[in-house]
Design brief:
- With about 475 residues, this protein is of the alpha/beta class.
- It has two domains: about 5-330, Ribonuclease Z/Hydroxyacylglutathione hydrolase-like (Metallo-beta-lactamase, Chain A), CATH 3.60.15; about 340-470, 2-Layer Sandwich (Nonspecific Lipid-transfer Protein, Chain A).
- It is built from 13 helices and 21 strands.
- It has helices at about 5-10, 55-60, 70-75, 95-100, 115-125, 190-200, 225-250, 280-290, 325-330, 355-370, 430-435, 440-445, 460-465, and strands spanning about 25-30, 35-40, 45-50, 60-65, 80-85, 105-110, 130, 135-140, 145-150, 170-175, 175-180, 205-210, 255, 260-265, 305, 310-315, 380-385, 395-400, 410, 420-425, 450-455.
- The strands form four sheets. Strands 7-6-5-3-2-1-15-16 form an eight-stranded mixed beta sheet, with helices on one face. A six-stranded mixed beta sheet has the order 8-9-10-11-12-13, covered by helices on one side.
- A hairpin with a 2-residue loop joins strand 1 and strand 2 (about 35-40).
- Helix 6 packs parallel to helix 7.
- The protein is globular, with a radius of gyration of 23 Å.
- It holds the Pfam family Lactamase_B_2.
- This is MBL fold metallo-hydrolase.
């Protein structure tokens, strides 16, 4: 098939302008993923969820469309008046990106039940972390801000038995203009209704249109055709939800965001199965719902929206890509190393796997008691020899855990008829990273660095939340 343009030309883009548009009350510049530069009428700026570095999530994630070196230089040199961090996932709280900003920059975060986000930001050296009460409207230096807490359940409505809230959304009001930035918060129709009832109309709503998980690409029981079918079904469901939420909010301008990336390294081919709609798909679904095309603002890196006038300045030139372009770019990253591939342990060095795994089970059991979450679910861990870490006799280690008992068995237990089970397969280096808390289970799943087989074939949020506490 003849290409419209080369990949290099497709992703060449201007570095953008530095000043606010004359007379603008609120200007929103898209950077990448969930990163936006919001400029107020007085020239002050708010940077949201900056992620500009390559290889986050342990070497697996890369921005798409990619930022040019000129763009990275410009965005790294920003001196925002505030930085809003919605939650602690690396595509929203990227330590390597945040290191470019003055440690005295005021950070705006929500008062989440668990202090992990605040603690991580303190560890990075930031000294002015403003923890705002969730769902309360506050005034900060003339700006009206509301940080909304996590909406209940997942985007599909599943609810975890473990109370572990981590997502937030942002409502910003300035100069008579109102912005909603949903970010990754799993908003549903009734959430959107309540937001409108409380705040009224929005000039701009930034709404997620995709998602991030290891489904279906890291599920080895599915062949390529089945993975493609499930990818398409999930993409369609997310687009439906995007349009439904936008229809309730009825913002003057809706910006789709927080849903575009590719995978690199030896899992680059997984990029084929990411449930990310291309710009053409978003426009088509928007039009099919009977919405005005002028109300949809698809912004690429460097593009900006003047909220007062509705004018869009298109500088990026990267909005004509499709799924084939995305996969082609991912394939250019195949030789990039994953973090776990850089770990090497001498063959004569004996890692106390049995003792560490038993300790991790005890820690997990302690958290299960704390959360009163002991579901009837069996977990099998298959730990394979890693690139730089050998296992005894070069054989995989199999561990069986019943979540409703404290026991851990060093065997691959046969599934019990009628009882749910999940089998996770990962290499020794990644298991070691998880055990010593150099990696987080939820992030490893998002990174697709663990494979999963399960019965029944249904997402169990309680299981996946609990696995975050399997460490020593």
């Amino acid at each position: 098939m003849k290409r419209r343009t080369s990949l290099m030309k497709l992703f060449e883009s201007s570095t953008g302008n530095d000043a606010t548009a004359s007379g603008s009350l609120l200007r929103i510049e898209a950077i990448t993923n969930a990163a936006f530069l919001i400029t107020l009428a007085d020239g002050r700026t708010i940077l949201t969820d900056p992620w500009f570095s390559d290889g986050i999530y342990y070497g697996s994630w890369y921005n798409f469309p990619p930022l040019s070196e000129a763009q990275k230089k410009r965005y790294h040199s920003l001196r925002p008046d505030f930085i809003y961090i919605s939650h602690l996932h690396p595509d929203h709280m990227d330590a390597r990106t945040l290191a470019h900003y003055d440690s005295a920059t005021p950070l705006l975060i929500g008062a989440l039940p668990m202090p992990h986000l605040e603690r991580n930001l303190k560890d990075m050296g930031f000294s002015d972390i403003r923890v705002l009460p969730l769902d309360e409207t506050v005034a900060i230096e003339g700006i009206t801000i509301t940080i909304l807490g996590q909406f209940e359940g997942t985007s599909s409505g599943d609810v975890s038995d473990v109370d572990y809230e981590m997502d937030t959304s942002l409502v910003l009001e300035s100069g008579g203009r109102r912005l909603l930035n949903v970010v990754d918060n799993p908003i549903k129709e009734h959430d959107a209704v309540r937001i409108v009832e409380r705040f009224g109309s929005f000039d701009t709503a930034i709404i997620p249109y995709g998602g991030a998980s290891f489904y279906p690409h890291a599920f080895p029981q599915f062949d390529a055709a089945e993975k493609a079918r499930r990818r398409d079904a999930l993409t369609e469901r997310m687009l439906d939800q995007f349009v439904e939420i936008a229809g309730i909010l009825k913002a003057s301008k809706t910006i789709p965001a927080a849903g575009s990336y590719v995978m690199g390294g030896r899992i680059a081919e997984f990029s084929e199965y990411l449930h990310q709609a291309a710009p053409g798909q978003i426009r088509a679904r928007w039009a099919a719902a009977g919405n005005s095309p002028e109300a949809l603002s698809i912004l690429g890196p460097g593009d900006s929206l003047d909220v007062a006038s509705g004018a869009i300045e298109m500088l990026g030139g990267a909005l004509s890509f499709n799924s084939e372009d995305r996969l082609a770019y991912a394939r250019t990253l195949r030789n990039r190393p994953l973090d776990q591939d850089l770990i090497s342990v001498p063959r004569g060095f004996k890692i106390p796997w049995k003792r560490m795994l038993q300790r991790a089970r005890a820690v997990l059991w302690g958290y299960q008691q704390r959360f009163s979450a002991c579901p009837e679910h069996d977990v099998i861990l298959v730990i394979t020899p890693g690139k730089g870490i050998a296992l005894p006799e070069d054989r995989s280690i199999c561990v069986s855990i019943s979540l409703d008992s404290e026991e851990l068995r060093f065997e691959a237990a046969a599934p019990v008829p009628g009882r749910p089970w999940s089998q996770f397969t990962l290499d020794a280096a990644m298991m070691l990273m998880l055990l010593i808390q150099a990696a987080n289970w939820n992030n490893v799943e998002i990174a697709a660095l663990v494979e999963l087989e399960r019965e029944p074939d249904r997402y169990d949020p309680t299981l996946h939340t609990l696995m975050n506490f399997f460490f020593i």
